[in-house]
Amino acid sequence: MNVDAGTMAPTEHGECFVLDDGGEVDLDLGNYERYLNITLTRESNITTGKIYQHVIAKERRGDYLGKTVQVVPHLTDAVQDWIERVARIPVDDTKECPDICIIELGGTVGDIESAPFIEAMRQLKRRAGKGNFAQIHVSLVPVIAGEQKTKPTQQAIRDVGRAGLVPDLIACRCDVPLETSTIEKIAMFCQVEPEQVLAVHNVHTTYHVPLLLEKQGILKTLGNILNLDAVTKSQSLVELGQRTWKEWRNLTSQQERLYETVTIALVGKYVNLHDSYLSTIKALEHSAMRCGQKLNLLWIDASDLEEETREKRPVDFHKAWHCICTAQGILVPGGFGERGIEGMIAAAKYARENKRPYLGICLGMQIAVVEFARNICGLPHAASEEVRANAVDKVVIYMPEIDKDKLGGTMRLGLRPTIFQEGSEWSRLRKMYGESSQINERHRHRYEVNPAYVERLSEKGFEFIGKDDKGERMEIIELKDHPWFVGVQFHPEYLSRVLQPSKPYLGFVAAAAGCLEKVTADCLRDYGVHGVDGVTNGLNGVRI
Ligand code: GLN
């Protein structure tokens, strides 16, 4: 019933994904943006809370003209209208309506929460008409004592069938490849042909899944169901598709042959649930692939690095520090609250002093500011207001315009410009962005670097090379005298794509792997000799 994912604990639900328009949404939308290389909006996500809010607002306006407002038809109609409206929104800058709208109906068949949505889908199938609606049912095939069990799938298909939905394809998730007899059994009991059963077993990485599906003829099967031959495709789109597919295949096959590893330490507080950092991990993976390296990620609970832990849990303390010392790069990702802050500061200090590549994302940049203020600017009590509200030197403060009383949707959110400052031509990060003077990245924060301390910090070599368009907000810091020490107030991981890794991550991983020079030269070449100004989204300005 949450209206959006912004107020949900990442430790329970995984990260909150942020869109260009500032929508705070489920992490699945990140997967779709990354895989499809498209830009979604907050409209692309419906929750029970959001759709009820929408219907209730209409009721309050009097739109229902005295009628009794009910789940069926009012809520179910609202779901369908919403989907139809969003499905017609032109894709990115093309001004063209998409040919296909993918709807993911989350949750599990039989959940009370999903019942109105299932009914809405049943009606939508009629509304769309024959040949315009394909239903793919995702089901788990567990293996018990070596035997592949089809009963859960049969039961689930029966349940949706009772609700009036009959799948066109059944995608079976399984640890191991599906046996022919399993496929036949599912086909037979679920009233489909064996070609309609897709075997989705565990593969090397998720990047191999499209190849696995293609091998099973998904394009042909889906094409037949949706009559895709009748859709006109421009020559340039077809070529783009072929090129992308070729690149994708190369990347994944190259990945299998990688033997060199790059070791990155991720110092955070939500490390028990890796999904809390999903986009961060993906951005690191994309970057490692581009550098021709296998990613070895070390998960470090920031509080394990703190002095207190040395006494209480010495084994954890030494283990964590061993990871820091052996990692080729140290990453402090975004986060909220107090726990683990001192551990993150210690990690940033280690990276700075030992010239180890460092990337600070949002909170990670604020951490770097506190560390530098304390240890270089002679402000031993420097702190962030988020952690110590009455600190003497608040080097990170609450942003003035942020509502202190309301938590939902009140942060500084979404795509915003960062201007590289004059004199920052030396910046390694700026080069990664093709020497651009402006970039746009997504934000999600309440606190910012205190402008009152900027001069003192810069005097000592803490360079604020990127600011917002008014020059008020600090967006990027970088140390000159260091192989790669970068902090960004934004979250570049949200715009990372498989074939176009996020630049701050790519530079960081390349520095850690010892190939920054080559990767920088490649980036500069991608942008054209001396860079392109006004890059739209940190992705070489390319939007597909
Ligand atoms: N807690 C910090 C802030 O609100 C950092 C947020 C983040 O890392 N996303 O500014």
UniProtKB/TrEMBL annotation:
Keyword terms, alphabetized: ATP-binding, Glutamine amidotransferase, Ligase, Nucleotide-binding, Pyrimidine biosynthesis
InterPro entries: Class_I_gatase-like, CTP_synthase, CTP_synthase_N, GATASE, GATase1_CTP_Synthase, P-loop_NTPase
Any one GO molecular-function label of the UniProt entry: CTP synthase activity
Reactions catalysed, as given in the entry: UTP + L-glutamine + ATP + H2O = CTP + L-glutamate + ADP + phosphate + 2 H(+)
Gene3D superfamilies in alphabetical order: 3.40.50.880, P-loop containing nucleotide triphosphate hydrolases
Top enzyme class: ligase
E.C. number(s) listed in UniProt: 6.3.4.2
A cellular-component GO term for this protein: cytoplasm
GO biological process assignments: 'de novo' CTP biosynthetic process; pyrimidine nucleobase biosynthetic process
Nucleotide-binding among keywords: yes
Pathway listed: Pyrimidine metabolism; CTP biosynthesis via de novo pathway; CTP from UDP: step 2/2
Keyword hit for ATP-binding: yes
Domain CTP synthase N-terminal: 1-228
Residues of the Glutamine amidotransferase domain: 273-502
Family: Belongs to the CTP synthase family.
NCBIfam families associated with the record: PRK05380.1, PyrG
Known role: Catalyzes the ATP-dependent amination of UTP to CTP with either L-glutamine or ammonia as the source of nitrogen.
Protein name as annotated: CTP synthase
UniProt organism field: Glarea lozoyensis (strain ATCC 74030 / MF5533)
